[in-house]
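Structure ticket #2291
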Amino acid sequence: MTIDALLKQLLAFRDARDWEQFHTLRNLIVSTSIEAGELLETVQWKSDADIEALLRDPAQMKNLKHECADVLMYLLLVAHTAGFDLVDAAAEKLKLNETRYPVDKARGKATKYSRL
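Resolution: structure written out below.
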């Protein structure tokens, strides 16, 4: 499925339930943050080894996938409501990061671009 097809399906789901009235830009951004918090909960208090084990557990993996999907769907709704293409925005940001983090300065480092 393409992002555009997913967005169309998501908007149809929303519209069938008359939820657009609740989907203000503010509410969608807040909801995105809440869902991102739920994604964080999937790894809270876990070691890297615990997280590796999570990936091999079908039930935990399903939960991880669903939490990621929730974040993605809200981000798609934020972008749609704000009037921009999320894929284009991500591509633009990646290009910006290429200039902020040149390979010769950033390779193997976790340093913020302003400190390279």
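Closing remark: The chain is about 70% helix and 0% strand.
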